[in-house]
Amino acid sequence: MCFLGSLTRLFAVILLIFSFVFDVFSLSYFVVFWAYYGVFLVSLILFLAFVIKKINMKKVILAAIAVMGFTFANAQEQTAKGKWLIEANTGFGGDTNTGNTSFQLYSSDGESSWSIGAEGGYFVADNLAVKLGMGYNDFGHSSNAFSYKVGAKYYLLNKFPLEASYTGASIKDANENPSYLGLQAGYAWFVSKNISIEPGLRYNVTLNEDYGKDVFQLNVGFALHF
């Protein structure tokens, strides 16, 4: 409102200047009248536009609050003690040697490898689930591995999953096997009452430096809550 008032006053000052110019040059007051009338119309239109914008913004804000409240209520229910979850992940940024329990395709030096897996969890307390994951990795050239994950996942404010887990793998005919401690943080978007999409960032710290290095990953998880 202050903005509109300032804008109107500015137009009035401009019109006063115009009036002086009109008077100096002996222009018709009819022209001055229509100039003032034009400023009035412009001010009225701006005022109406401002009011409509405010109303629409209020509606948008109220709708957003309602959606957030509904989503938060769903999240609270699905991460409550006694609930279960089944989770499938896609991983980017690391290779399949990290004890992978996600869906992933990796290529290096012309060789391709892939992995497939799933994870399950049980909420032992509100927002806190213990998890177990299993996976299969194919490295090509008749080399493969079975991978596993054990960890815990906590939903901060029901919306921000934080995970700490141990991952390892048993590689066929290998003298040494990889093992990692992983830390992950992300966001849980509950697209429905029982389904969430959870993008996150994960950092894997190697526990066997002779086998591999630390690995940074981007994961996108799809979880079923029941």
Report on this structure:
The relative contact order is 0.13. Helices cover 32% and strands 45% of the residues. The radius of gyration is 31 Å and the shape is globular. By secondary structure, it is of the alpha+beta class. β5 and β6 (160-171) form a beta hairpin. The longest helix has 50 residues, at 29-78. The mean pLDDT is 76. α1 packs antiparallel against α2 (29-78). An 8-stranded antiparallel beta barrel has the order 1-3-4-5-6-7-9-10. It is built from 2 helices and 10 strands; from the N terminus they run ααββββββββββ. The chain has 2 domains: 2-78; 84-225, Porin (Beta Barrel), CATH 2.40.160.20.
Classify the secondary structure makeup into a structural class: alpha+beta
Strand order of the largest sheet: 1-3-4-5-6-7-9-10
Helix content: 25-40%
Query: Any idea what the radius of gyration is?
Result: 31 Å
- Give the count of structural domains: 2
> What best-fitting shape do the alpha-carbon axes yield?
globular
Q: Hey, roughly how much beta strand do the residues contain? A: 35-45%
Termini separation comes to 51 Å
**Helix and strand succession?**
HHEEEEEEEEEE
> Quick one: how many beta strands?
10
Q: What is the assembly state of the chains in this entry?
A: single chain
Instruction: Name the CATH class of the largest domain.
Output: Mainly Beta
Name the poorly predicted regions.
none
Features:
226 residues, alpha+beta, Porin, 8-stranded antiparallel β-barrel, 10 strands, 32% helix
